[in-house]
Amino acid sequence: MASLERDEDRLAWIFGSSRSGSTWLLRMLAELEGVVPIDDPHLGHHLGVWRPIPLAWAASDRPPELTTLLDLKAEEPGYFFADRFRDSWWEPLRALIRSRFEAQAAASGVGGRQTLLVKEPGSHAAPILTDLFPASKVVFLLRDGRDVVDSWLDAYRDGSWAIDGGAFPVSPEGRVPLIRWLSAVWAYRSRQVRRAFDSRAPEDRILVRYETLRENTLETLEQICRTLSLEDGDRLAEVAERYRFERAPATTRGPGKAIRSAAPGSWRENLSAAEQIAMQEELGPALEEFGYGSEPVSAALPADGGSPTKAKAPVTP
Questions:
Q1: 138, 13 Cβ separation under 8 angstroms
Q2: Are strands 205-209 and 67-68 parallel, antiparallel or unpaired?
Q3: Cα–Cα dist 115/83, whole Å
Q4: Half-sphere exposure of residue 212: CA atoms within 13 angstroms, side-chain side
Q5: What distance in Å separates the CA atoms of residue 167 and residue 175, rounded to the nearest whole number?
Q6: In what order do the strands lie in the sheet with 115-119?
């Protein structure tokens, strides 16, 4: 059984925005010897409660800059995680997380020397999580924010895979505010993950672009395995082939499904002119920061800012 107190370097995080291929990546790496996959503990959503609430993007012409309760309240003594009382809660919080992960590792049935690989969707809390476990390793999975927003927007449709997890069918008038909110989340979350990534020595971190993982899956998996000291590399080619998007059953992929399209750049066809403008207004600087240049709205879209001709459903693009 893994002991994070003794072998903290056997803990590795997959951080990044949701809808970036993190489930796909975790499933592939979980095939390797000694890997204990911990899928979506949502620590970040408890430690990094958003402020303002998402409603602000629909209710205000100028919502304040996105942040978290942890940052806003750090100096207030009554706040549970106040900096003033950090010495009283830091080690108990670390022990709680460690104990929970070790319990899952013990129940996993994975033998030998274990690597606990945690896919954390609340990655905006990456800095505090990596501070809690300074010897842990980081996989920064980065995807073009426009594709992330497009993918999430598809999930906010009637009957989608995400409804049972708390999403909702967005109304036509709610699409642009939702796009702005999702864009702000991608920018904030990516910057926070970069902070955590920068806190690690080069040998303990790896930046993986979704687009590269999609195009060169085997080579990218090999690089990740070297960083995380994972073995069983002779199976990587078989794993990469078995988990190719094209091999997923047709009934499990497509619009409204968790496995959607795996097609970088599809936001150009799926979002209207008005939606693209709103998205790029929110994302512009962050896209540049992370190597995804902004671009003008497609000339093929209607001049009035309506939805693309190929996408006239009342809720989805």
A1: yes
A2: unpaired
A3: 31
A4: 13
A5: 13
A6: 35-39, 115-119, 11-16, 137-142, 205-209
Tell which phi-psi region holds residue 209, choosing left (phi > 0), alpha (psi between -120 and 50) or beta: beta
184 to each of 10, 121, 178, 188, how far by Cα in Å?
33, 16, 10, 6
CA distances for 298 relative to 79, 103, 162, 264, 313, angstroms:
47, 51, 29, 16, 20
In this prediction, residues 231-245 reach a mean pLDDT of 89
pTM of the model: 0.91
- Dihedrals phi, psi of 119, to nearest 5 degrees: -95, 105
Q: Tell me, what DSSP letter sits at residue 39?
A: E
Please write the tens of the pLDDT for every residue from 106-128: 999 999 889 999 999 999 999 99
Structural domains of the chain in order of their starting residue, each with its CATH number: 8-289 (3.40.50.300)
Q: What is the pLDDT of residue 1?
A: 60
* Phi–psi pair at 66, nearest 5 degrees: -65, 135
pLDDT digits (tens, 9 = 90+) for 9-62: 999 999 999 999 999 999 999 999 999 999 999 999 999 999 999 999 999 999
CA distance 116 to 135: 13
> 306: alpha, beta or left, given left = phi > 0 and alpha = psi -120 to 50?
beta
* Token pair listed for 16: 């990044």
- Alpha-helix runs per DSSP H in the chain: 22-29, 43-47, 56-59, 69-72, 86-107, 126-132, 145-155, 175-198, 210-215, 217-228, 236-242, 267-270, 273-289
